[in-house]
Amino acid sequence: MRNDVIRYAQVWEDADVLLAGLDVRPGDTCVSIASAGDNALALLTKDPGRVVALDVNRSQLFCLELRVAAYRTLAHHELLELVGSRPSTRRTELFERCRRALGPDARRFWDARRGAIDRGIGGIGKFEQYFAAFRTGVLPLIHSRATVDALLQPKSLAERRRFYDEQWDTTRWRLLFRLFFSRTVMGRFGRDPQFFRYVDADVAASILARTSHALRELDPSSNPYVHWILTGTHGRTLPLALRPEHFDTIRGRLDRLEWRCQSLDAYLAGAAERPIDRFNLSDVFEYVSLGRYRRMLERIVRRSRSGARLAYWNMLAPRRRPDQMRGRLQPLDELAAALHASERAFFYSAFRLEEVL
Q1: CATH of domain 15-124+240-356
Q2: Which among 123, 200, 219, 345 could disulfide-bond with 14, CB atoms 3.0 to 4.6 Å apart, if both were Cys?
Q3: Domain range summary for the chain, segments of one domain joined by +
Q4: Cβ(41)–Cβ(21) under 8 Å?
Q5: What does DSSP say about strands 350-356 and 304-314: parallel, antiparallel, or unpaired?
């Protein structure tokens, strides 16, 4: 698996769900998988004492570093332009202003990608390019622009269900969706094939079921992830870290955020620092064996204080606290299930919350 490319230019996990589950308290020490940085930044809105963002892919950390520079340097509306949430003809100019706040390695990395920056930094990852191919090459074969726009208009629950059943959920939609989001196509163009190593499920069927839930039971008009997939922008809504009410708070707490090019395993095995209170683990356990997953949980518990919380997602590989750890780690299944039912980043089959005893 290559670690020199941007796999995710955005975080495709709902920060509203994450923060509600973790219940971060003022002064907490948090560890977060970095990815593109959105949810590590979102944690700052809860007044933690420290957030440590980890990623083995240095390119992902350069994404986070550019976001930090943008929060320091730009106004809120300019940040949205740079990301691609809003239209812009001046992203190169905005980057030049951020560039001065980057370290030398990040500056070289982004200097080599100026053309991509001009299209919006939120769209340049492998996963986002996969969605762009769906949006431009597949979606027009299924639905007209007018039908897509109609899907994104506010509706009541009854109206959403009727629209989805009668206008959106066509035979062509199901056929082409299952083809494009199959294990083979997604493994080649969207996610590394290694990510499916521990997956036995029907990939396309699982994703289609979750997509149907997001478009039918939830509200697409207020879903920034649906908007981006279907239109290439965030539309009238934004992920948590990009909302205007959080901009000044995040900017004022950036000094509490640090990032390291390091695996979670290596970090946990390192010299003990202060106990950890909250873990945003993304879907990191999706890509490891059950044995390694259990060993990682053991290390997490050892590095945590009592009452610490872990949040992580299952996409297709089922992972949950093993029975042999029942006296040390308590699943918060009822809360996790309720939050998962409302989650707008809809690809995952389960959201896990566990608390250290």
Answers
A1: 3.40.50.150
A2: 345
A3: 15-124+240-356, 126-231
A4: no
A5: antiparallel
Q: How far is CA 300 from the centre of its chain?
A: 21
Q: Which residues pair with 32 in a beta bridge?
A: 53, 280
Q: What is the mean pLDDT of residues 287-306?
A: 93
Q: What is the pLDDT of residues 244-285, one digit of tens each?
A: 999 999 999 999 999 999 999 999 998 667 899 999 999 999
d(CA 285, CA 351): 12
**Residue 198 confidence (pLDDT) above 50:** no
- What value does the mean pLDDT take over residues 171-191? 78
Residue 5 contacts residue 59 (beta carbons within 8 Å): yes
Q: Which amino acid is at 341?
A: A
Task: Give the position of tokens 């959201």.
Answer: 351
Show the CA angle centred on residue 282, arms to residues 1 and 261, nearest 5°.
55
In this structure, are residues 79 and 247 in contact, taking their beta carbons and an 8 Å threshold? yes
pLDDT-derived band at 288 (thresholds 50, 70, 90) equals confident
Q: Is 304 helix (H, G, I), strand (E, B) or coil?
A: strand
Spell out the residues 6+ positions from residue 292 whose beta carbon is closer than 8 angstroms to its own.
none
Which helix (H) or strand (E) segment is 262 a member of? none
Comparing C-alpha atoms, which of 113, 127, 121, 130 is closest to residue 8? 127
| DSSP assignments along 156-171, one per residue | -HHHHHHHIIIII--H
**For the residues of 53-97, what is the DSSP string, one character each?**
EEES-HHHHHHHHHHHHHHHHS-HHHHHHHHTSS--S-HHHHHHH
Query: Closest Cα partner for 263 from 221, 295, 229?
Result: 295
